[in-house]
Design goal:
Length: about 160
């Protein structure tokens, strides 16, 4: 083996690493400002996964430092009044430094949990997750549609009452 062969092999390996396909997090991306929208509950479309009309590759979001999938939900009187599903880096559309959103700073995309807050008759929930298409709707049939949101609203209300 001549001294140039290892250098050639290193160049080939480096080239292969550079051109190898890079997989990025895939999330659902949609928004709605009306109850019972496709963004809220079109389970048939969400089941298509990466082939869904809502599917996006987060690598297209160059401003993000961390890739997460997110759901922001705003509910009033048990109905979703606004919903956002998209790629996210931990920053939401509300300001986390203001009351009542301070607790939203604790949303952690690695633990895949939701955090909700209640103020003046409105429940705001934020979720982060870090697996492909994890920000879709629940596929559990008994928690489908408005029943899911009513139960989530009640859980948030009870949690808020316990904090008082």
């Amino acid at each position: 083996m001549t001294p140039t062969q290892p250098a050639y092999l290193m160049r080939v390996v480096l080239f292969l690493l550079l051109v190898a396909p890079v997989t990025s997090l895939m999330c659902y991306s949609c928004q709605s400002s009306r109850p019972f929208s496709d963004c809220e509950s079109n389970v048939r479309e969400f089941r298509k996964g990466a082939n869904s009309k809502f599917a996006v590759n987060c690598s297209g979001y160059s401003n993000m430092q961390h890739d997460f999938c997110a759901i922001e939900t705003y509910m009033q009187n048990g109905e979703v009044i606004a919903m956002i599903r998209d790629c996210n880096d931990g920053k939401f559309s509300f300001t986390e430094d203001n009351y009542p959103y301070i607790k939203m700073k604790h949303v952690n995309g690695l633990s895949n949990i939701s955090v909700c807050t209640y103020v003046q008759g409105q429940v705001t929930c934020a979720s982060l997750c870090n697996t492909d298409m994890c920000n879709g709707p629940s596929t559990a049939t008994w928690l489908h549609g408005s029943t899911h949101w009513i139960l989530l609203f009640l859980w948030c209300l009870i949690s808020w009452l316990l904090l008082i």
